[in-house]
Write a structure and sequence with these properties.
With about 250 residues, this protein is α/β, with parallel strands linked by helices. It has helices spanning about 15-30, 45, 55-60, 65-70, 85-95, 105-110, 130-135, 150-165, 185-200, 210-215, 225, 230-245, and strands spanning about 1-5, 35, 70-75, 75-80, 115-120, 140-145, 170-180. The protein has twelve helices and seven strands. Strand 6, helix 8 (about 150-165) and strand 7 form a beta-alpha-beta unit. Bound molecules: adenosine-5'-diphosphate and magnesium ion.
Length: about 250
């Protein structure tokens, strides 16, 4: 089982799009995937065209069993939906005097053996649930927009990861995914080069290009594979799936 957190403390960099397409693409390859949405916005399920009324909050708090809390979004793809109910869960976690960082880990560890991949979407910023995600996951995939230079925030984020690695020694920033790549914009290529120089080619994945289809698909509750299978967005995400699936960590 692999657990991959799609995370970085910045919003609007393609985190949710990546988490959803990573999860859906791996499921389409026959992997058993659980997508865990830890954002109060609950965008991940909306992108998949579903509106579950239970999800992660109910599962972790014990109000629902895993079977009741998880929704089958596509064949082989289950989701523990996020949304507003997570706000209450965050308060419960913050109020714990001891062990609040491991609340998610304790819950997911009971069910994760039934999956090949656990993909976790995180909220922008650095909240109690994101810390919980990083105490649980082993791999981090950080999407970085090539539209604006976010190298500073990425370096800041790597420092936060280092702090957590003291407790979760399995955690690693395995992948940096350049997003919104626009070949017509010179800055886009410069930022990509900077990322490769700083993190090395092994960590920096092939970019996802700017593709308007990717921003349209959620409006139809469809993945890019369903909405526009021949678009550059679909091509780029399929390449990502190949790479992640190949680079297996147990
Ligand atoms: N490669 C892309 N090209 C064009 N639009 C994109 C692309 N990736 C994501 N988007 C759109 O950009 C917005 C932000 O993406 P999202 O995945 O929600 O970011 P985050 O989760 O980091 O806040 C969404 O409206 C999404 O549909
Ligand atoms: Mg998001």
């Amino acid at each position: 089982m692999r657990s991959i957190a799609v995370s970085i403390s910045k919003g609007g960099v393609e985190k949710t799009t990546t988490a959803v397409h990573l999860a859906a693409g791996l499921a389409a390859k026959g992997q058993r995937v659980l997508l865990v949405d830890t954002d109060t916005q609950g965008q991940a399920s909306a992108m998949l065209g579903i509106k579950p009324d239970v999800g992660l909050a109910e599962f972790v708090s014990g109000d629902a069993t895993f079977e009741d809390a998880a929704t089958e979004a596509r064949e082989g793809l289950s989701i523990l939906a996020g949304g507003r109910s997570l706000a209450a869960l965050k308060r419960v976690i913050s109020r714990q005097e001891y062990g609040g960082e491991r609340v998610l880990d304790e819950s997911l560890s009971k069910v994760d053996a039934g999956f090949d991949y656990i993909i976790l979407d995180t909220s922008p910023g650095w909240d109690a649930l994101t810390v919980n995600v990083l105490f649980y996951a082993r791999e981090i995939l950080a999407p970085v927009s090539t539209e604006v230079l976010t190298l500073d925030s990425l370096i800041e984020f790597t420092k936060s990861i280092e702090a957590i690695q003291k407790y979760n020694t399995d955690l690693e920033l395995n992948y940096v995914l350049p997003t919104f790549l626009d070949g017509r914009v010179k800055k886009s290529g410069e930022i990509l080069a900077q990322l490769r120089k700083h993190f090395g080619k092994g960590v920096v994945l092939s970019p996802v290009r700017y593709n308007v289809r990717l921003s349209e698909a959620p409006g139809y509750g469809q993945t890019i594979y369903e909405y526009a299978p021949n678009s550059t967005g679909a091509v780029d995400y399929k390449a990502l799936i190949e790479r992640i699936n190949k680079n297996g960590r147990a």
